[in-house]
Amino acid sequence: MAAISYVFTIGRVAEMLGENEDWLQEISIEMDPEDGRLTVWGTGEETITAFTDLGVENLAQLVKNYKADPGLMARYPRPDGPIPQARLTWYGFRPSSHRTSTAVLTGW
Question: Long-range contacts of range 66-69, CB-CB < 8 Å, 24 or more positions apart?
Protein backbone atom coordinates (compact mmCIF):
# COMPACT_ATOMS: atom_id res chain seq x y z
CA MET A 1 0.00 0.00 0.00
CA ALA A 2 1.35 3.41 -0.97
CA ALA A 3 1.78 6.13 1.63
CA ILE A 4 -0.86 8.84 1.81
CA SER A 5 0.50 11.89 0.01
CA TYR A 6 -2.55 14.18 0.11
CA VAL A 7 -5.89 14.64 1.85
CA PHE A 8 -9.08 16.57 1.08
CA THR A 9 -10.40 19.15 3.56
CA ILE A 10 -13.98 18.75 4.67
CA GLY A 11 -14.89 21.89 2.72
CA ARG A 12 -13.51 20.36 -0.45
CA VAL A 13 -15.32 17.07 0.21
CA ALA A 14 -18.57 18.98 0.77
CA GLU A 15 -18.14 20.53 -2.69
CA MET A 16 -17.25 17.15 -4.23
CA LEU A 17 -20.31 15.43 -2.73
CA GLY A 18 -22.64 18.41 -3.07
CA GLU A 19 -23.51 18.27 0.63
CA ASN A 20 -23.59 20.67 3.56
CA GLU A 21 -20.21 20.88 5.31
CA ASP A 22 -21.69 21.05 8.82
CA TRP A 23 -23.82 17.96 8.19
CA LEU A 24 -20.81 16.07 6.85
CA GLN A 25 -18.84 17.07 9.94
CA GLU A 26 -21.60 15.70 12.16
CA ILE A 27 -21.98 12.36 10.41
CA SER A 28 -18.23 11.87 10.00
CA ILE A 29 -17.73 11.93 13.78
CA GLU A 30 -18.26 8.17 13.85
CA MET A 31 -15.34 7.63 11.46
CA ASP A 32 -11.86 6.74 12.71
CA PRO A 33 -8.43 7.39 11.16
CA GLU A 34 -8.57 3.82 9.85
CA ASP A 35 -11.70 4.88 7.95
CA GLY A 36 -9.83 7.77 6.34
CA ARG A 37 -10.93 10.66 8.57
CA LEU A 38 -8.08 12.75 9.97
CA THR A 39 -7.74 15.85 12.10
CA VAL A 40 -5.18 18.36 10.85
CA TRP A 41 -3.75 20.72 13.44
CA GLY A 42 -3.04 24.31 12.47
CA THR A 43 -1.65 27.11 14.58
CA GLY A 44 -2.78 27.31 18.18
CA GLU A 45 -5.84 25.16 18.73
CA GLU A 46 -7.11 25.43 15.15
CA THR A 47 -8.09 22.11 13.58
CA ILE A 48 -9.72 21.01 10.36
CA THR A 49 -11.16 17.66 9.36
CA ALA A 50 -9.63 16.04 6.30
CA PHE A 51 -10.17 12.80 4.40
CA THR A 52 -8.02 10.41 2.44
CA ASP A 53 -9.37 8.89 -0.79
CA LEU A 54 -10.70 6.00 1.28
CA GLY A 55 -12.23 8.49 3.71
CA VAL A 56 -14.12 10.24 0.90
CA GLU A 57 -15.47 6.87 -0.26
CA ASN A 58 -16.50 5.92 3.28
CA LEU A 59 -18.10 9.30 3.91
CA ALA A 60 -20.02 9.07 0.63
CA GLN A 61 -21.36 5.70 1.83
CA LEU A 62 -22.39 7.24 5.17
CA VAL A 63 -24.25 9.96 3.25
CA LYS A 64 -26.13 7.28 1.31
CA ASN A 65 -26.92 5.39 4.52
CA TYR A 66 -28.24 8.46 6.33
CA LYS A 67 -30.30 9.56 3.33
CA ALA A 68 -31.77 6.07 3.00
CA ASP A 69 -32.70 6.02 6.71
CA PRO A 70 -32.93 9.56 8.18
CA GLY A 71 -33.91 8.01 11.51
CA LEU A 72 -30.27 7.03 12.03
CA MET A 73 -29.45 10.59 13.08
CA ALA A 74 -31.86 10.37 16.01
CA ARG A 75 -30.31 7.08 17.15
CA TYR A 76 -26.83 8.52 17.58
CA PRO A 77 -26.84 11.64 19.76
CA ARG A 78 -23.93 14.00 19.45
CA PRO A 79 -21.05 13.00 21.73
CA ASP A 80 -20.88 16.51 23.17
CA GLY A 81 -24.64 16.76 23.75
CA PRO A 82 -26.97 15.21 26.28
CA ILE A 83 -28.38 11.75 25.74
CA PRO A 84 -32.13 12.05 25.12
CA GLN A 85 -34.10 11.08 28.23
CA ALA A 86 -36.04 8.49 26.22
CA ARG A 87 -32.79 6.62 25.64
CA LEU A 88 -32.02 6.21 29.33
CA THR A 89 -33.51 3.57 31.57
CA TRP A 90 -32.48 3.98 35.17
CA TYR A 91 -32.02 0.96 37.39
CA GLY A 92 -31.40 1.04 41.10
CA PHE A 93 -31.78 4.79 41.46
CA ARG A 94 -32.94 5.73 44.91
CA PRO A 95 -32.19 9.33 45.84
CA SER A 96 -31.92 8.44 49.52
CA SER A 97 -29.76 5.40 48.80
CA HIS A 98 -25.99 5.40 48.93
CA ARG A 99 -25.84 2.91 46.07
CA THR A 100 -24.44 4.13 42.78
CA SER A 101 -27.02 4.52 40.06
CA THR A 102 -26.52 2.64 36.85
CA ALA A 103 -27.72 3.95 33.51
CA VAL A 104 -28.32 1.45 30.76
CA LEU A 105 -28.51 2.82 27.24
CA THR A 106 -31.27 1.35 25.19
CA GLY A 107 -31.93 1.41 21.49
CA TRP A 108 -28.29 1.44 20.42
Answer: 66/27
